[in-house]
């Protein structure tokens, strides 16, 4: 996958699998002026999609939307009774808050 920034320089991104017997849930949001959308996607070590949930949000605050998606991802883990879960987000503010370093 390639992602492009405002100056159109490319950077490589690569999905890394979770440890054996763990599930990785990745959350990501797309924000526009008046709304946002996003999803939480759960994958196993082989990259197989096990579950996903997508949502629309009437507010465009990226941190709040990523936080709501993280909650939806955790609800997926609860609903499927997964106990070994890695949550991943590209929202550094949220990750720092989650890890207690905000």
Estimate the helix proportion, in percent: 10-25%
Approximately how much beta-strand content do the residues carry?
35-45%
Unreliable spans: 1-11
Q: Round the mean pLDDT to the nearest integer and report it.
A: 84
Q: Using only CA atoms, what is the Rg?
A: 14 Å
Give the end-to-end Cα distance, rounded to a whole number of Å.
29 Å
Instruction: Just give the CATH class.
Output: Alpha Beta
Give the helices and strands as they follow along the chain: EEEEEHEH
Shape: globular
CATH structural fold name = Nucleotidyltransferase, domain 5
Biggest sheet: strand arrangement: 5-4-3-6
What structural category do the secondary elements indicate? alpha+beta
- So, the CATH homologous superfamily? Ribonuclease H-like superfamily/Ribonuclease H
Main sheet attributes: strand count, strand direction, barrel closure: 4 strands, mixed
- Assembly state of the chains shown: single chain
Give the strand tally.
6
- H/I helix tally: 2
CATH architecture: 2-Layer Sandwich
How many domain units?
1
Organism: Trema orientale (Charcoal tree)
Pfam family, one: RVT_3
InterPro entries: RNase_H-like, RNaseH-like_sf, RNaseH_domain, RNaseH_sf
Domain RNase H type-1: 29-101
């Amino acid at each position: 996958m390639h992602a492009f920034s405002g100056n159109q320089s490319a950077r490589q991104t690569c999905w890394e699998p979770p440890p054996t017997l763990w599930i990785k849930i990745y959350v990501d949001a797309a924000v526009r002026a008046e709304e946002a959308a996003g999803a939480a996607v759960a994958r196993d070590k082989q990259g197989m999609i096990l579950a996903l949930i997508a949502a629309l949000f009437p507010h465009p605050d990226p941190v709040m939307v990523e936080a709501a998606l993280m909650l939806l991802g955790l609800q997926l883990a609860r609903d499927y009774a997964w106990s070994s879960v890695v949550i991943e987000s590209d929202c550094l503010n949220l990750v720092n808050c989650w890890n207690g370093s905000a």
